[in-house]
Design a protein that fits this description.
By secondary structure, the protein is an alpha/beta fold. It contains 14 helices and 14 strands. The chain has 2 domains: 13-47 and 86-300, Type I PLP-dependent aspartate aminotransferase-like (Major domain) (Aspartate Aminotransferase, domain 2); 323-426, Aspartate Aminotransferase, domain 1 (Alpha-Beta Complex). The strands form 3 sheets. The protein has a 7-stranded mixed sheet with strand order 1-9-8-5-4-2-3, with helices on both faces. The protein has a 4-stranded antiparallel sheet with strand order 10-12-14-13.
Length: 428
């Protein structure tokens, strides 16, 4: 079991000492703290400011709870300067408890073991630490279309990345995985897929079963799980019941095989706070121990202010799940604008779409060349699809959220018209 994981090293002495001090303080016990160079602790009993924050009154209803959570978090971080001091890497107990509740409420993870959960400075940090916890030399499988930053992390950890071909429907070839898989290997997946938008609980189940049969593991990178839309008759539509149905199907696999899966998530996409950097993960204890020690050596401290604000945002979301509904309606509308303009999108044809991105073909022109010319002539800035595909390809990745929203979404529509003109002129 988990032979594909490194043996966890000893936790850094500073991390261990800071954690002990924090635990006593959380319990209201006296502590004589001589642990670290935590100079931000020096003024922490002083009141730096009185903050009177007025939250917006004309916000969309779904964003009002987010605004209130941000207000509480900012006050906690800065009225007294708690945001200036170090905090325990891996999260305080109350932050871990919120993450455990998130995994229970939305992923049917039943354990309440704080030693099997970690809170990180963003979902990206959880991804990096989870991949670097794997034994060098291990084979790590992934879809041909996959989140670009995973590949260099795998290579730098001296593991062997193996991409699985996808069919025209964007579905990875499960038979190829069965043929190539070896005992003790790992599969990495972002599902819904960044960048292709492909979603399939059925495929996820097949992948997990193949890996478990071969005493392997799975990393499920799931920050986009609340962005699933329904594709029907060439149109995208947000339907909350449909989203919840897909989530239940994912969770039936997850609950059965949770001892073999490292599940990563964050509030950045669900709660529209990508810059806040508040991620979390759960998995086998050995996996989480490795991740904790990696963070403890390299971060020394979690970003205290961000964690305080993130804690409030996550707490509010657990009480009132609505921010993603506002986002998903806009995602559907923006995707439909692209579809209505007859842009050559690469969409899954299984009736499902997820994540914040969509692929677009660039005709006979390499995606990088198209981007260079589109930027110089039209000021258009997409991302080359090559990094996600793993080799040159005539496609780009379009973000559905980089353009700020306003009533009527006029700027988005103008940007799409500009993109359509550039595509027609440059690739003709």
């Amino acid at each position: 079991m988990t032979k594909y994981l490194r043996e966890p090293s000893e936790p850094p002495a500073i991390k261990d000492a800071m954690a002990k001090a924090s635990k006593r303080k959380e319990k209201g016990l006296p502590v004589s703290n001589f642990a670290s160079g935590n100079v931000g602790q020096m003024p922490i009993n002083l009141k730096f400011m009185d903050m009177d924050i007025q939250t917006g009154t004309d916000l969309p209803q779904e964003l009002k709870s987010l605004s209130k959570a941000m207000e509480r978090g900012i006050k906690k971080a800065f009225e007294k300067p708690r945001g200036l001091s170090y905090s325990t890497t891996g999260g305080l107990d109350k932050q871990k408890d919120l993450a455990l509740r998130y995994f229970k409420d939305f992923h049917d993870i039943e354990h309440e073991d704080r030693e099997r959960v970690i809170v990180t400075p963003g979902g990206q940090r959880a991804l990096s630490a989870s991949l670097r916890s794997i034994q060098p030399g291990t084979k790590i499988f992934m879809s041909q279309w996959e989140y670009a930053p995973a590949l260099p992390i795998i290579k730098e950890n001296n593991c062997e990345p193996i991409k699985i071909d996808v069919d025209e429907k964007l579905r990875p070839e499960i038979d190829e995985l069965r043929e190539k898989v070896e005992e003790g290997s790992v599969f990495y997946t972002s599902m819904p897929n960044n960048p292709s938008g492909y979603v399939s609980p059925e495929l996820f189940s097949e992948v997990v079963e193949v890996m478990v049969e071969n005493e392997g593991g799975v990393i499920w990178d799931a920050p986009y799980i609340f962005t699933i839309l329904k594709l029907n008759d060439g149109k995208a539509k947000f339907n909350d019941d449909f989203l919840r149905e897909q989530l239940e199907r994912f969770n039936s696999t997850l609950s059965e095989y949770s001892d073999h899966i490292c599940l990563l998530s964050s509030i950045s996409k669900t709660c529209l706070v990508a810059g806040l950097r508040f991620g979390f993960a759960t998995g086998p204890k050995k996996w989480i121990d490795n991740m904790n020690n990696i963070l403890g050596r390299e971060e020394l401290s979690s970003p205290t202010a961000g964690f305080m604000i993130g804690q409030e945002v996550l707490s509010e979301f657990l009480k009132k799940q609505e921010t993603y509904k506002w986002l998903d309606k806009i995602l559907a509308n923006r995707l439909n604008v692209l579809i209505d303009n007859d842009l050559p999108l690469i969409l899954p044809d299984n009736g499902k779409f997820g994540s914040l991105y969509v692929l677009m073909r660039t005709g006979e022109m390499d995606g990088k060349e198209f981007i260079d010319r589109a930027y110089e002539q039209y000021g258009i800035v997409p991302i080359p699809a090559e990094a996600f595909y793993g080799e040159p390809i005539n496609a780009v990745r379009l973000s559905l959220v980089s353009t700020p929203w306003s009533e009527g979404d006029k700027e988005w529509k103008e940007n799409v018209e500009n993109l359509k003109e550039a595509l027609e002129e440059i690739t003709e």
